[in-house]
Design a protein that fits this description.
The complex is a heterodimer. By secondary structure, chain A is an alpha/beta fold. Chain A has seven helices and six strands, in the order βααββααβαβαβα. A five-stranded antiparallel β-sheet of chain B has the order 2-1-5-4-3, with helices on both faces. In chain B, strands 13-12-11-8-14 form a five-stranded antiparallel β-sheet, with no helix packed on it. Chain B has a two-stranded antiparallel ribbon with strand order 6-7. The chains are: A alpha/beta, B alpha+beta.
Chain lengths: 177, 462
């Protein structure tokens, strides 16, 4: 079985739930304090992904980038060498999705745009109201514009978290093939 | 409280007697009364029981107890030390002082042992190099020896893809093998990026080392890959150069893979030997003492001078070998009789061949008188300085074998003719070693040289 390592970055505004998503998904070695000191924390998750007729053991190195403003100027350095980026927004704060387009522009300045995936987080707080349905439609439109698969995730319940990261893993492996 | 006693009621004792309950209802009422009177105290008692129980549990759990009292103790100790610093020093000195002294003594003993080992190997090539280096750099030999003797150990080496921070290879050279090195390489890359962004201010420059306690992480980077070595002690001269050289070498060998790195680290497995070699004895390391331009010039001059000397020695050796291997003609000393007719009137300035017109005389004597010496060269005609017309010394005859008559005294001279056994000649001259004899005269009146071993005195000829 082929063994590959890939770097994934998580981008999103402060408190959208990036770190909670990571915590749901990965094996952690380092404390979250690094997020508030150097603005990034690296975690790891090993998954097995199918590629054509083979299986690939994929080690995902997740770079959780702090969303607070004092660190956003350092994102360019941290984004270098990323094989994929997960964009994270908060369904309870629609403005956090507006910022994602700006982050993608920053990403484009670093180098060729890697595959993207959009995670609309805190789906457990999403209701059935018309307002919420409209919001979801807007987010779907954004995902299409960015050519990014959309997942409605919940770090609290674990909804779609694993699937979102696995999808990103498959994208990266297929992207190489 | 006794059941017979009841406090007086509002209507007096009689009313109390009238209102007294039946015997069956009495305990219940008493209990209610007890609750009314003692309820608050009983509640407090229960709380106290619970608190005591918690405390007992806490005392049984030493770790939990320590965690609780540690902050208070730390604070109290800090305040105490700050307020009574001198007293604390006096109290602690006997303990800490002795510990420090012991530690320093052990370190010095280890250092002395290391220096001693270095000195014992003083005739090793490395020590000679060190002495030259000391001369060139102006640092004393002792200082360099001490520097070499300092302990140093490479614990781990990482090879990391520079852009992504993904781990290419990792080797553990000392201590237990640790997991999660890929996570460490990621965070290390993040820290490098952070340092570059935070302190680089747009200038070139990178994080080169991280110190923590006794250990250091030494980092050397090429464009696409960087190496991080976790070391203990002071790195010897040349270690960084070795690290940098290896990083550059890896990059040049795997440039294509590194440029478009897809996360497959398998091709880099062959790097393990190179990474491990960083922990080998520092004898292989290049001297990393930075020389000034003047020192470099002086060193280059010395190198050129040494090179010239070596070249001259080689040329001299070659000439000597040629000279020795070349057939050396026998040094020629011609002995002739003192009397000769006619006497030479002048000494020619150039070398001449022995005259082919000897004039035999009966007054020949066997007492030779050295006239001159000549050293013929190979391929050239033998020259004899200032030889007048040869005068026969004696009469000789060829022994019982045919012999070559040569143009000069040696096998290197061409053969003029062959003399038959029993042929008589006049002996004109001999070489100093008596090996060759010049005889005269042949049919054309010339003289020639015959190996003396084949000549006999004429009277002894058969």
């Amino acid at each position: 079985m082929l063994t590959l390592s890939k770097k994934i970055c998580l981008l999103g505004d402060f408190a959208v739930g990036k770190t909670s998503l990571v915590r749901r998904f990965v094996y952690d070695l380092f404390d979250d304090k690094y997020l508030s000191t150097i603005g990034v924390k690296v975690s790891r998750k090993i998954i097995t992904v199918a590629r054509e007729q083979d299986l690939v053991e994929l080690t995902i190195m997740l770079w959780d980038l702090a969303g607070s403003e004092e660190f956003t100027h350092m994102w360019a350095s941290y984004l270098r060498g990323a094989s994929a980026v997960m964009l994270v927004g908060d369904l309870t704060r629609p403005e956090t999705f507006d910022a994602l387009s700006r982050y993608v522009s920053d990403l484009d300045r670093v180098g060729p745009r890697p595959p993207l995936l959009l995670a609309a987080n805190k789906a457990d707080l999403l209701g059935d109201s018309d307002e919420d349905q409209v919001l979801v439609q807007q987010i779907q439109a954004l995902a299409e514009a960015l050519a990014a698969p959309l997942y409605l995730t919940s770090a609290l319940s674990g909804q779609e978290v694993e699937n979102a990261f696995r999808h990103l893993g498959r994208i990266m492996v297929e992207h190489d093939a | 409280m006794s059941p017979e006693y009841l406090p007086p009621g509002p209507d007096g004792p009689s009313a109390a007697v009238d209102a007294s309950p039946s015997p069956a209802a009495q305990p219940l009422e008493l209990e209610e009364l007890r609750c009314i009177l003692l309820g608050e105290e009983q509640g407090r008692l229960a709380e106290l029981d619970a608190t005591v129980g918690d405390l007992q549990q806490l005392l049984a759990d030493k770790d939990a107890l320590a965690a609780i009292i540690a902050p208070s103790l730390e604070g109290a100790l800090r305040d105490e030390i700050q307020q009574r610093r001198e007293e604390m020093i006096e109290v602690l000195y006997p303990i800490i002082g002795q510990t420090v002294v012991r530690s320093v003594r052990e370190a010095m003993q280890e250092l002395a042992a290391a220096v001693d080992a270095r000195i014992r190997s003083t005739i090793a090539p490395r020590s000679i190099v060190r002495r030259i280096k000391a001369r060139v750099t102006g640092v004393s030999d002792a200082e360099l020896a001490l520097r070499d003797a300092l302990p140093f150990e490479v614990l781990e080496v990482f090879a990391i893809h520079r852009a992504s921070g993904l781990l290419l290879r990792h080797v553990t050279l000392s201590g237990p093998a640790a997991d999660d090195r890929d996570l460490v390489s990621g965070m290390l890359t993040a820290i490098r990026d952070f340092a570059s962004d935070a302190f680089g201010h747009g200038q070139s420059g990178e994080l080169a080392a991280i110190d923590y306690g006794q250990q250091r992480i030494l980092i050397e980077a090429a464009e696409l890959v960087y190496l991080a070595a976790v070391v203990e002690g002071v790195e010897p001269p040349g270690f960084r150069a070795q690290l940098r050289g290896l990083a550059i070498d890896i990059q040049s060998r795997y440039r294509h893979l590194l440029h478009r790195y897809q996360g497959d680290a398998a091709p880099f497995a062959v790097l393990d030997a190179s990474l491990t070699s960083l922990g080998a004895a520092d004898a292989q390391r290049q001297p990393a003492v930075e020389l000034t331009r003047g020192q470099k010039g002086a060193l280059a001059g010395v190198a050129v001078l040494l090179g010239s000397c070596v070249l001259a020695a080689c040329l001299g050796g070659w000439w000597l070998v040629r000279a020795v291997s070349r057939p050396q003609p026998t040094p020629l000393v011609i002995y002739v009789t003192a009397a000769s007719t006619p006497a030479p009137t002048a000494i020619p300035t150039e070398a001449i061949r022995p005259s082919a017109t000897p004039t035999p005389t009966a007054t020949a004597t066997t007492l030779p008188t050295p006239l001159a010496t000549a050293t013929p060269t190979v391929g050239a005609t033998a020259t004899v300085a200032a030889i007048p017309t040869p005068t026969p010394i004696a009469r000789v005859a060829v022994s019982d074998v045919r012999v070559n008559v040569r143009a000069g005294p040696g096998l290197e001279y061409p053969v003029k003719s062959v003399a038959e056994p029993g042929t008589f000649f006049d002996l004109v001259a001999r070489t100093r070693d008596q090996a060759w004899a010049q005889v005269c005269c042949f049919s054309d009146g010339s003289s020639g040289w015959i190996a003396a071993a084949y000549l006999l005195p004429a009277e002894a000829a058969p």
